[in-house]
Amino acid sequence: GLTVACARCHDHKYDPIPTADYYSLYGVLRGNDDQLVTFNEPQDSELAALGFVTGGRRFLGVTHDIIDDRIDVITRGTLGLTVACARCHDHKYDPIPTADYYSLYGVLRGNDDQLLTFNEPQDSQLATLRKKFSDQMRLRRSEANARLRERAGDYLAAQLNLKDYPEEGFDQLLSTRDIIPMSVRRWRDFLNVSATPDHPIFGPWRILIADLHHLPDADWPSAATQALAASRHLAQSWNPRVAAAFAQAPTSRTEVTRRYGDLFTRVDNDWKALREASKKATKPIDPQAGTPAPIDPIALPEPPSEALRRFLHDPASPATVPDTGMVNTEFFYPTDITVELWQLQGAVDRRLIALGVQAALVLVDRPPEPQPVVFRRGSPSQQGPEAPRRFLEVLTGPDRRPFQKGNGRLELARAIASPDNPLTARVMVNRVWQHHFGTGLVKTPSDFGLRAEAPSHPELLDWLALRFVESGWSLKALHRLIVSSAAYQSASQGHDGRSADERNRIQKLDPENRWLAHFPLRRLEFEQLRDALLTASGRLDPRMAGPAVGLLEPNNHRRSVYGFVDRQFLPGVLRTFDFANPDLHVAVRHETTVPQQGLYFLNGTFAADQARSLARSGAALSPTARIHDLHRRLFQRAARPSEITDGLQFVAAAETAPDRPVLPPIGPPEPRLSPWEQYAHVLLLTNEFAFAD
């Protein structure tokens, strides 16, 4: 992809990601179908596209960093704007206020990650692994829910000191006795949205805590007495047990939390006692069923108590762990339990991969949440004004409206892909231009802000963007337009035929060749060079789709786009060849020239194997014809007379050279390359083969 980096393992767990192959395949097939942008209702197979957002790093589960990375990838990748720079303060250079960052933060914060699988085969081993995981997950969740219900009062008390539970850092739990910061924040969000003065359970909380939060402790008791007296008309809407608990005004905020805690504890204990009693009772034996069944209590006998119990047991209650999969709930468990559950989930994932099951990690909207707020200086413990979910002001103007549907993710996508958006098409066109010429019309493809250099050809960029949109966002049409241009088809030695004065003048006016007096010589990236070697040798496997295979596997002849990339253990060879960091959005790869690059192809078995296959292709030809054939295959031209002479001399000298076996990194020595294999090997290592000119 042009803007997407796809790695195939988690950044902090060693298990592979079961969705990576499907996402990679989706990108390949979508590109082949030339459907970059669609506005139709998505099919199940298109859900894989959400890997663009969900396939990034997990940052040890730190939600804010995960969302920050997603904002960075989306805005730099599609808009060429460094919005993530506004996380802690207004952007220093571009007109992007911090509020815009948190508007997008709110859009992405209102989603859960969810794993979906398609076309699963019937597999007993997978069913066993999945049952083992789900049973243990259900057990651990039930245990955690029981602890959360027992300590409801403690979590309400924590609302009085939210600064002790900031939304940053890694919420590592060492014991089941620890207060869970994520649950503290769930209680906070619930109370902010639901605790209205007439709420059956939390009406008193709103009146005594939320509405009086600004008062110092010394002034609070008298204010609480007055507020409670003024709100007695609301007591008829309160749960009778709650109303009785607050018949008398409390003397402190802590007493409010204690009264709620005592109330929830009594209700929970009553329910536990009723449940234990029911286990000892049995229904009459059904002659058809043949076995007695325990009676499961449906409700506590008193409606007010049952209403409180239902709140504690409601799946949406902050007193429960959400049933939304391990990826969203790992923060609710101590470290040892988290590791245990991830190991079980990893076993399921490995089996899915072994079966070749198509899977997608998608985003699912949560129920509407409160409006996001600005985190002053990027600290969640210092909350500022609201930042409604909406698009960037610099692209929509000051009269923009907040997103209206759900948490706004669909509206954000439409705003990015809109033909009226002045950046999306230009950014994409610039990336395609960079792919062909080595440098974009804008040199910083992921930064179109004020710090970026002006486009070298602004009118051309505008025209290409317009043509791109008019073609229905067709990448194939865009590629075709660029490669058929005179600029692309010119030679890299563009000074030929010009006088010395003219060459000097061009060099002085445009030393970097930004105005393209000739085609810029461009070195192939490692993946391109690997595919070129396989193509030249006739060993490239052109099949599309299929599971990922390690790029350096000896029998892997597939295109590099299907290569397995391990975030944790990136092979040293890839780093040697300036491979992009799979943990980051990388706009332009650094380009280095170091001896290890040449030594890899000179001494490694991969290039030697391609040389053997290449040399066999013309074995029946005469020596001169064989040299011509190799040059046509590799350089798309006939050999020059001097090259024929040099080639014949090289082969003759190689026939009399001492025998030197090829030494692979692992295993026994391989047979020495024959003279013609050595000659093919030399041609494969030339700059003419490794550079696009």
Keywords:
disordered N terminus; elongated; 8 strands; two-stranded antiparallel sheet; 47% helix; two-stranded antiparallel ribbon; 693 residues; mainly alpha
Overall description:
This protein is mostly helical. Among the domains are: 173 residues, no CATH class; 132 residues, no CATH class. The protein is built from 29 helices and eight strands. Strands 1-2 form a two-stranded antiparallel ribbon. Strands 3-4 form a two-stranded antiparallel sheet. A hairpin with a 7-residue loop joins strand 3 and strand 4. Helix 11 crosses helix 12. The longest helix has 28 residues. The radius of gyration is 33 Å and the shape is elongated. The N terminus is likely disordered.
